[in-house]
Amino acid sequence: MNGDRTESDWQGLVSEYLVCKRKLESKKEALLILSKELDTCQQERDQYKLMANQLRERHQSLKKKYRELIDGDPSLPPEKRKQANLAQLLRDSQDRNKHLGEEIKELQQRLGEVQGDNKLLRMTIAKQRLGDEEIGVRHFAAHEREDLVQQLERAKEQIESLEHDLQASVDELQDVKEERSSYQDKVERLNQELNHILSGHENRIIDVDALCMENRYLQERLKQLHEEVNLLKSNVAKYKNALERRKNSKGQGKSSSSALTGVLSAKQVQDLLSEDHGCSLPATPQSISDLKSLATALLETIHEKNMVIQHQRQTNKILGNRVAELEKKLRTLEVSGLWSLPGLSYNVSVGFGRGKDTILFGDPTLPTTQRSRSPLLKFVEQPTENKASPKDDVVLNREEFEDQRDAVESSAVNLIRNEKQKSKKAPSPDVTVAHEYKAEQVDKA
């Protein structure tokens, strides 16, 4: 066993020796080849150095001769001097080109290095992002590129749609401008025709805006009155039903047991909810039904009060809009100089739209016939007999207008208070809620 083993080891060592010997021979041959190439390179280097020295010496000699030729002979014509200057510029440009070429080569080399670094950095980022060490040439994932392309397409479509919308908006704006101009012309024609139909003065046009404002106010008041009438009708129907139920209950002999109905007074509610009565109230079906009817009556009363409050708020809103419109109209009249201008006549309503209390601005040139107009704005014609006495016409300034307005408001307050006193005698308090609220608002004003 040991002999076989030593023999195998010996054969392995011999084979390794032969391999090393062959490698040594190959290294020797390679070294000889490299030495030969080194000798040839050295020879070529010497030759190139010699050629470079020769060219440098030749260049220096030519340059020296040329300078001696130009500088040493001042009698040369200017054309040759120009040629010499051009030659100098040519040499300078050639030197500059060589220098720039070297810089370009250096920059290209740097660019290649930077591109390699950039590529390596992108590959590293992609590897870190995707966790793939063998990413290869692809820097980013394909789905990311697809997403970017889709986003770009959507952005282009959105830009196109916005451009179309802009063009459509411009066209629509042009149409609206044309329509506005046509409506303005139409309003002017209608105003003139309306003035002609109403046989008004040529220098005084009917105020259509004031008529429209009065019409809107009257429509809102009419709508509110319809709602109040419907509410009052529902209350009357409820009271009728309650009275019928009470009559029926009295007819059946249950007036003492079932005294609760849909309509309760404040005293009845206080008696039912008192502590003594509540503690002594037995837990019977009749008492439970009475409590249910009490709760139903209270809910109905709350609903009615809410409806009344809603109507009061709507009334306040309408009156506020009315006051704002009147203030705007009066401000317009003040700015236009109609407070002290005797050439115009207006009949301005300052009350609650009843058309009774008005302020007159006299105009002696109006015809004798008097026509019915809106309470907000009327034209008052004076008789022809007063033409000779213009002192009778009243031209109001601001103080007189405010005095008359205060007088009208005081008369309206007195009227509402009288209605309130009359309504206190009646048994239905819901009817006078609106009048009370109006009186309170007027008192506050």
Automatic annotation (TrEMBL):
Keyword Phosphoprotein: no
InterPro entries on file: CC149
Coiled coil, from the record: 24-242, 309-336
Entry keywords, A to Z: Coiled coil
Pfam families in the cross-refs: CC149 (PF09789)
Biased composition (Basic and acidic residues): 433-445
Chain intervals for the UniProt region annotation (Disordered): 405-445
Family, similarity comment: Belongs to the CCDC149 family.
Protein name (record): Coiled-coil domain-containing protein 149 isoform X1
Gene that encodes the chain: CCDC149
